[in-house]
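User: Predict the complex.
Assistant: Input components as received:
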Amino acid sequence: MVKVFIYPATSLILSDMVARFGHEPLGSAIGIRERIQTPGFESPPLQITPEEPKKGLKWAAVEVPSGVRGRMAVYGPLIEEAEAAIIIKDPDYAFGCMGCARTNELIQFHLRNKGIPVLDVAYPTSDEEGVGFVAAVKEFLTGLKMEESA
Amino acid sequence: MAEYIPKYQGTVTKYVFVESPLLTAKDLAVRAYEISAGVMIKETCFGLQVTGTPEEVEPLIEAIREFDPTHIFIKDRGFPPGDERRCRANLGGARPGYLGHEFEMQRVRYISHGLERVARMDAEETGKAAARRPEEGRAHPLDLKKLKELIEAEEP
Amino acid sequence: MTEKVRIAQLSCGPEYSGVQKEIYDAASMVDAEVFFPDIALSDVQQGFSEFGLDVRSPDLKLAIARAKALVEGRIDADAVFIATCFRCAEAAIVRNELRRYIHENSALPVVSYSFTERTTSGTLLTRMEALTTIARRRALLAREVQEGITLGIDSGSSTTKAVVMKDNEIVGTGWLPTTEVLKSADGVVDLALQEAGLRLDDIEAIGTTGYGRYLIGKKFNAQLIQEELTVNSKGAVYLADRQHGPATVIDIGGMDNKAISVQDGIPGTFTMGGICAGASGRFLEMTAKRLGVDITELGPLAMKGMGNTVPMNSYCIVFGTQSLVNALAEGSAREDVAAAACHSVAEQVFEQQLQEVDIKEPVIMVGGTSLIQGLVRAMGELLQTEIVVPPHSQYIGSVGSALLASGYIRGE
């Protein structure tokens, strides 16, 4: 099983596909779950405390807005763990955890810079594209399995 | 600052979405309860949420997926079910992630179609189909068959 | 208990900066609740494209669409709070455009704020209080005439002021530097009562404002404890006799500055800054000290000087002081340095805050710094308008409090 970062990290479709084809999806839910289940100081709604943007300094400098650094504190560790990634290029309507375009640019940059296998794909807009989408994702994920066992 | 004591430590929560002509969210819930063996299940408008230890949840959601494999979609959730920080009733509206789901749920029928077709393909055919994956910036020609359907639908 | 004021939040980033709780806390302190306008995905897509500002961040698209839903009356709210990350250019553009859009197209009071991870509920409290006051107490703010005998106390960060008013006249004033909050308040109240020839027992209602408002309000059993944004706008239009129509109120305080866009005496949009001390009255105090003059002499001194001969324009009080020291070391005239300091403060306020409110004439300057003529002149030059400085402008908070407190005499 390979850890596959999904982008948008909130994607139901990608989360499902990665798990369906036998791998482990890394997305927002994993990062948020960790915070929601860790005791500490109360900071609703996401249990991201003011300390997190400081942790985010590892991935973005102090002049970068706090919202970017706070999000990177969630995604940075997941990117470090990731062994592969699937990127949907146009998540215009992925809100909340993926709501900041600057963070999203930085996440993609770090994923590409890591040298792990990355599949780029767009959301399907027809049945035919749905076939291409599923086939590409399946092929990519199957390939990861073969790499792993090799 | 107030101390935070988490609930449901050590559990995982999964969303189960269903978008099927044969299975409603309600049917899904009824069938899931039958095999849940005490694992916490909560019905939602789009399907279910399942919460428990990973050892409990994994086999259960795999069994649920088998009800309608190409029309059931599953993803992790960071929060336990009914958490008031994310609850619609407390926020005055949907949390932002809901709109993201709304967006993807408009697309899942294409995925369902893709899953059905790809399941019947061998590796070589899958590879050929994969080469035609949708990509950003690539024009999306209207499917001929779809066009024909549309034209025929217009007839009185 | 009154019904909670419902504040619609339009934002990008507070949950991820660890400050959403601070927003919730500030709202609950003033018996308000923050909510997120609920719209469907199709509303987001349509609202965002109709608004016409093509931003990339999905959360900003959501904020735009939510703003449209509020303006079009599809969602009910009493006030709007816009919050985005400090230092984000994309969000700053959206924040400003939404504030303007809501202000121009609805009667909803709106405040915008850019936060960092260090933003606390204390910082947000004054703004939230002003928002809820405007939403909840329009009747109170409609008062135009002071009645009976009332006392207003303004416990500011640098100075404490008190005013006794009787039958729509100011009959006593008191002014002292703030040392111990309660002691300074006692002192100014004594001074004001003495001048008025009255005793504390004669006072029919008391209002307090400023940083120390809760502490002194409790001590003096005040009927009205109110933040300075609404109180000062009320006081400003009252003293300037501009109670009807639009006005812009600028108050450069010792610690933070207020710029308020007022309509018929009620604030519509406002900003309250205070991150950098180079834009504060405190910098002028330091300048006076370094020049060896009393703060009251700084204004006349500056009027004799030419500000543009001395380079000084820092938002930071430390860097500003460096420029000051350098200029003096290079032999610049004290008058020119005084004028430059005034210009520098005016410029910082202009750049940091006045861009965020719509400047409508008359522009009324109030607070202690409005007595520094050099500063008023510099601000007038920047805004290219004649600035109005009403009589008793340094007592603005006290006058506003005394005026509004008179509404409590007959238990309004």
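Chain B has one domain: 12-129.
Let me know if you want any component modeled separately.
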